[in-house]
Design a protein that fits this description.
Layout lengths: L8 H10 L2 E5 L6 H8 L4 E4 L3 H9 L1 H6 L5 E4 L7 H11 L7 E5 L2 H11 L4 E5 L19 H5 L4 H20 L5 H13 L3 E2 L2 H8 L3 H13 L3 E4 L15 E4 L2 H7 L5 H6 L3 H19 L7 E4 L5 E7 L5 E7 L6 H16 L7 E7 L9 E4 L2 E5 H8 L3
Helix pairs in contact: 10-11
Length: 394
Amino acid sequence: MRYLPRLLEARVRAAARAFPAVVLTGPRRAGKTCLLRHLFPRASYQLFEDPDVVARFRSDPQGFLDDLELPAILDEIQNVPEVFAHVRSRIDRAPRRTGRWFLTGSQEAGLMRNVAESMAGRAAVLQLWPMSARETPKVSLARGGYPEVLARPRDASLWFGSYVQTYLERDVRALGAVHDLPTFRRFVGLVAARHGQVLNKSDLAAPLGMSVPGIGRWLDILEATLQVLVVPPYFENLGKRIIKAPKIYVADSGLCCHLLGIRSDAELRRSPFLGALFEGFVAAEIVKAQVHAGRRRELYYFRDQQGLEVDFVVPRPGGGLRLVEAKASRTVTPSMAEPMRRLGTAWRKQPGTRGEVEMLLVHEAPRAPVPSRAVAPGVQALSWQELVAELAQK
């Protein structure tokens, strides 16, 4: 498979020059290993999903690491969390030597805990998501951004089916909190069917005959393995009558289409999930732009008890807000912008607020290209492709 350049490359190189270790997290098959092996072709490589490799390490950790040629890539280290302590001790022997250790993993929460406990100050931590539309025009609503799907789109259904099975058998089983994998598979399907909705754990628990705390633990697994994007509500300076549950999206639109049984662009256009899928696609592009630029992930939504709702609220550096409404339509109207205008007015009236409010109505590109334009006072209408280009400049 031909390597596709990643936006994170410059930050990985910079981290390798500044730190003894680089920890690269991200969902399974997002391209972490491919990125590191491309950037550091002379690094030795060990995969900790290989039972023989794990057995050799656990039988003699010091001997295993002594035999490694540095720099070294240690892949999927969530399977052997004890490796952090051994790597830390070796870093401490030569703390000025940078770019020696490259560690990858696909379980965010566990990795971060181990990094905090063992590698503080010794490792740069970066996150790689599936490919963004800025990285390749092959990314689409139906395909999503996993590199192997983009390389072989005709095999997408088979690939996603294998991905879900591998995810269940490796990541979920390894976390040890799930003993009923068939029910967990149904749970993943239910989450996909509620893509873009405000999270209601009771609504998920009832069809599965589970408790609400049990559903909460399973949602934590999906979030820890970066399979879902949880978008919290924005309520700063906007009063108390706000919906405070988060919204939830399957992080990759292609995977969500697979889970929903959508197999083609034609089926997607007819699907009742089209609007929610487009909304989630826009959310993922915003998050990818933030993460790949090294900024903190900041994405919120707004909904109050009076029915005012705006898809996304993004704080702007230095103050102010960017409001984004996502519409899976080639035609936009002023009425689509009204919720953003109302929220922008309410925000400006709150004491202590500063900065400007930017309002964007993001839509499907019409067949005949139309440049971004004002669709209502203070509101710009632009295609999602134009949004991706704008995000690259922010």
